[in-house]
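mind reviewing this stuff:

——
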Amino acid sequence: MEAVSLAMPLELGKLLVDGKEEDAVTGKTIPVTNPATGEQLTTVPDGAAADVDRAVGAARRTFETGVWRKMKVSQREKIIWRIGELIEKNKEELGMLESLNNGKTYREALRGDIPPSWDVFYYYAGWARKIYGETIPVDGEYLNYTLREPVGVVGMITAWNYPLLLAAWKVAPALATGCSMVIKPSEMTPLTTLKLARYCLEAGVPEGVVNVVTGYGPAAGDALARHMDVDKIAFTGSIRTARALLKASAESNLKRLSLELGGKSPNIIFPDSDLDRARKAAFWGIYANKGEVCSAGSRLLVHEAIYDKFVSELANLASRMKIGDPLDPSTEMGSQISQAQMERILSYIEAGKQEGAQLVCGGERDTEGAKAKGFYVKPTIFAGVKPQMKIAQEEIFGPVLAALKFRDEEEAVAIANSTVYGLVSAVWTRDIRLAHRMAQKIKAGSVWINDYNCFDSSSPFGGAKQSGFGREMGAYALDSYTQVKSVWIALE
């Protein structure tokens, strides 16, 4: 891959409300920065309650008039597919924007963020005319059948680590089911979401069906969560914000929620596994996207028989990792999203030291050369970690790996299930019986056997315990955007 550079000036961001690009009612703006350099890229409107109200009004009008949900399903199918085509057509620009705005490498954005974003639209285009109910045999002379109908107006609040992909996971099934929507992207990474909304219009989605309000969570996010005309909130983010959304739902109209939250995911290595493959997967399981991944394998559980050698070899890989300019094709890890996130990561590293974990590599900010202007953290590994330590219990959301030792299957399961999280997990073994037992015992939404970070548009993704509820992707996601109506017809 050749080196890349910014070939287009970044225009000022605008809200998208009822098909029109607008400023916030207050006229205030939010700076959007490049975390790798600390430089400002552009600004977007600082939307608040009045802007949310306009956007929700547009979504409600389009839903009630049925300009989208009553459109011929074959036509809706073609439009949703066309959105995927537009994402694929503009992949280089989108990859560039994602890299500049998030700090991830351009190579990673182009390979890991953009292709699954277009694929999820291709996948749900096929569902547009396959969403139907069933007939049910009931007592008496009745015909009873069900209708699966769109839930209504959906508010979508997305995180900053995979801005386009997280929006695509929500917009695609919402469109397939006939919903209208208002998206509130992270104020730090709104650029590709605004592009996605434009592609929806270009593909033929009627004005007002897809709306975007940029702004901060306490203003725009809270207004969306409390709006009486919003029927559902789809959220990706922290447990703390999820609790606020649940409270807002309870205090407003009891709107439905689907929550994809954090993780402290165990990656469990048994000695009979393919250790070279497991080591590579463990490396990228924590350092992909600079560790800012809800499904990061941030807890490495290694059997005592291979623990010292496995951790040492992993640390050797981490110490040689190239950190730097996200646009340099040889860079393996870019910048953390912000100074605040960098400082949070460094505070967890300090907590690990204080609690007695052994710092094997990394553990500090990287300020070499041009990196001093950005927010870089060296890839970090702690050994000798105990399950009760802070770095083994709390989500760090950065390139920090906690390596724990276990004796046998029972202890591995106990450690794996010892946090409040339950998003994903992985088990490495050639023993198929052990693999199945572990998959049943681990409390998580996904269990990967002899691999890590397996995703597909057709397979559901979501968490157990405090990692949330509801599912993204696959047929299961359709449940979040539809409701079932039972129809009874008396035949006598």
